[in-house]
């Protein structure tokens, strides 16, 4: 489908069962593959990104059996993949590419890792530089500092403890990959982080999943991470993947914009995902949020479709980089000028999200100031520009968050199929809660 026309929506109300978290799903798959023992994974996200990880693990010799669409049985390899040579295609799945680079770099095989054109534009030098401190043998096959990569057996290291440094201000996935891979060396490890670590909640998520598989990490002020003793991954037996908090943001925002109540099920107040804090941003904008153990509900005091009942906000979004995109579109329905700060990492995602978001918001009549690491959004004085054709840049989050603009005017979403990366039936689910 080349495009999808969304009619103007008046209200939002209903209940949505969330798909599994992408971030948790791909972490769990890799840890289960590296662990000792069999892991039964339930409610795994079915998407392009998880498909890339599953395909890669199978090529690497991991025994994976699928019992239903979202349930898998994974036989762990005790930290060593059977396949010593492999060519892996990982699409644009950063949550698969970066951790697999780190893991394979510390093994004894010959591997090539590639992706789509955009993945080859996403920097990876900081991760490679950190791995080379451990003796990794990694070659760039294209442009220096970017995928595709070739990995050969690492050089033997005689140090009793792994000590390395990594930059923290480009992508948290670099640190995640290192943390997940280091137990494979069989040594204690110390990672020093230079610069301000962005997306800290994603590192918290990584540490939580590692702990689930029996590996403890001590962190000191987000500047140093210590694996104090030799540790190895052990299967917890059964893992149930939590619903995706980033995906929840679109429906919760719909409840705030369209009156609600809208309830998402599968994630709740005790979530380990950083994007759960999107609810705090919505509350600052004036939405009413209720959190249960396994659900979240959003509503507002909206009196009419034209009522700008939400308030603008000025927010440092370092802790919610993905969900901050949802705030950018929600700002169209707020009274005042919204400023989203500390979002430079947007430029290194599936597309340059800062530039893309600025371009598409302007199509809807908003006045936009795009800075190097911020976005300032002034909504239209009256209604949104009707029938705007929103380009999505092969970026699932661009497509999903701009669906919210339909509360202001009918719109066209170009290339709606790009949502298959994380949420293949997103638009069908979105239509269930929107009403004329």
Which structural class do the helices and strands define?
Answer: alpha/beta
CATH second-level architecture of the largest domain: Alpha-beta prism
Q: What is the strand arrangement across the widest sheet?
A: 16-17-15-2-26
Beta-strand proportion: 25-35%
Q: What is the CATH superfamily of the largest domain?
A: Enolpyruvate transferase domain
Broad shape: globular
CATH class of the largest domain: Alpha Beta
Biggest sheet character: 5 strands, mixed
Residue runs with pLDDT of under 50 for 5 or more positions: none
Helix content: 25-40%
Give the SSE layout:
Layout (H helix, E strand, L loop, with lengths): L2 E4 L4 E7 L4 H13 L3 E5 L5 H12 L3 E6 L2 E5 L9 E5 L4 H12 L4 E5 L10 H8 L4 E4 L8 E4 L9 E6 L4 H10 L7 E6 L5 H13 L5 E3 L3 E4 L10 E3 L4 H14 E7 L12 H7 L3 E4 L3 E5 L10 E2 L2 E3 L6 H8 L3 E2 L2 E4 L11 H11 L3 E4 L3 E5 L9 E3 L5 H7 L8 E4 L11 H8 E2 L1
Parallel strand pairs: 2-15, 3-14, 6-7, 10-11, 18-20, 19-21, 24-25
Antiparallel strand pairs: 1-25, 2-26, 3-5, 4-5, 7-9, 8-9, 11-13, 12-13, 15-17, 16-17, 21-23, 22-23
Helix pairs in contact: 1-2, 1-3, 1-6, 2-3, 3-5, 4-5, 5-6, 7-9, 9-11
Describe this structure in words.
The structure is a single chain. The longest helix has 14 residues, at about 245-260. A hairpin with a 3-residue loop joins strand 22 and strand 23. A 5-stranded mixed beta sheet has the order 16-17-15-2-26. The chain folds into 2 domains: about 5-20 and about 245-435, Alpha-beta prism (UDP-n-acetylglucosamine1-carboxyvinyl-transferase, Chain), CATH 3.65.10; about 20-225, Alpha-beta prism (UDP-n-acetylglucosamine1-carboxyvinyl-transferase, Chain), CATH 3.65.10. The chain is about 30% helix and about 25% strand. The protein has 12 helices and 26 strands. It is an alpha/beta fold and about 425 residues long. It has helices at about 20-35, 50-60, 95-105, 125-130, 170-180, 200-210, 245-260, 280-285, 325-330, 355-365, 395-400, 425-435, and strands at about 5, 10-15, 40, 65-70, 70-75, 85-90, 110-115, 135-140, 150, 160-165, 190-195, 220, 225, 240, 260-265, 290, 295-300, 310, 315, 335, 340, 365-370, 375-380, 390, 410-415, 435. It is globular and about 70 Å long. Helix 1 (about 20-35) runs parallel beside helix 3.
């Amino acid at each position: 489908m080349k495009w999808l026309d969304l009619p103007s929506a008046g209200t939002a109300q209903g209940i949505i069962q969330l798909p599994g978290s992408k971030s948790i799903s791909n972490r769990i798959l890799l840890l289960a593959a590296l662990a000792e023992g069999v892991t039964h994974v339930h409610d795994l996200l079915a998407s392009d990104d998880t498909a890339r990880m599953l395909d890669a693990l199978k090529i690497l010799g991991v025994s994976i059996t699928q019992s239903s669409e979202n349930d898998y049985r994974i036989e762990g390899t005790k930290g060593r993949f059977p396949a010593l040579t492999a060519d892996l295609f990982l699409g644009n799945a950063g949550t698969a590419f970066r951790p697999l680079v780190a893991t394979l770099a510390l093994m004894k095989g010959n591997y090539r890792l590639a992706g789509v054109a955009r993945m080859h534009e996403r920097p990876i030098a900081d991760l490679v530089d950190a791995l080379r401190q451990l003796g990794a043998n990694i070659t760039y096959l294209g442009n220096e500092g970017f995928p595709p990569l070739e990995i050969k057996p690492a050089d033997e290291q005689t140090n009793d403890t792994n000590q390395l440094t990594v930059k923290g201000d480009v992508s948290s996935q670099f640190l995640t990959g290192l943390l997940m891979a280091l137990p494979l060396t069989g040594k204690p490890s110390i990672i020093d982080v230079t610069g301000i670590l962005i997306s800290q909640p994603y590192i918290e998520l990584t540490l939580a999943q590692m702990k689930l598989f029996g590996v403890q990490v001590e962190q000191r002020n987000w500047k140093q991470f210590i694996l104090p003793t030799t540790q190895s991954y052990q299967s917890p037996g059964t893992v149930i993947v939590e619903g995706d908090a980033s995906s929840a943001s679109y429906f919760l925002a719909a409840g705030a914009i369209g009156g609600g109540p809208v309830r998402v099920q599968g994630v709740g107040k005790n979530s380990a995902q950083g994007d759960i804090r999107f609810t705090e941003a919505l509350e600052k904008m004036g939405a009413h949020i209720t959190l249960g153990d396994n659900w979240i509900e959003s509503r507002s005091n909206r009196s009419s479709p034209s009522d700008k009942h939400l308030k603008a906000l000025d927010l440092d979004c370092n802790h919610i980089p993905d969900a901050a995109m949802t705030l950018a579109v929600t700002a169209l329905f707020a009274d005042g000028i919204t400023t989203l700060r500390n979002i430079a990492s947007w430029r290194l995602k599936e597309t340059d999200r800062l530039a893309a978001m600025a371009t598409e918001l302007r199509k809807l009549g908003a006045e936009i100031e795009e800075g190097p690491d911020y976005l300032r959004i002034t909504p239209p004085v009256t209604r949104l520009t009707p029938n705007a054709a929103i380009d999505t840049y092969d970026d699932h989050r661009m497509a999903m968050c701009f669906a919210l603009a339909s509360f202001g005017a009918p719109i066209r979403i170009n290339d709606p199929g790009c949502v298959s990366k994380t949420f293949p039936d997103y638009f069908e689910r979105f239509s269930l809660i929107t009403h004329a």
